[in-house]
Task: structure prediction
Amino acid sequence: MIPAPGTPASKQLQEIAGWGKATAVLNRLQARLTDHEIPTESLRKDGQPYLLVGGKVLVWTDHTAEDFYWGTEPGSAAKSAPSSDVPDVARRIAAQVPPASRPVEGEGSDVVTAA
Result:
């Protein structure tokens, strides 16, 4: 159901829809990191999508989704790279994730998290 114009639900829908490109590029990055068993979590704050990688690195983009930015917080000493180069960005971000937060093979059983 589409909310009536001018309602809080309508405004929320507009905010989310306005971040469509950003969501799409963050989803591509998330898929790449997940393929390499790097834990990720999708987040939103005030409608803006973020990706939390390894519980440590926050990744975001702006409405144009031309560049990724990452660091511990938006706006503080962020690194950046073009969103068109997902493999390189994934590699650079994965290098910042501590090994303890990555899954490792358990002895004769399923994958477990390192202590």
DSSP finds three helices and seven strands in the chain. The longest strand covers residues 40-45. Residues 20-35 form the longest helix (16 residues). Residues 46 and 77 are 21 Å apart (CA to CA).
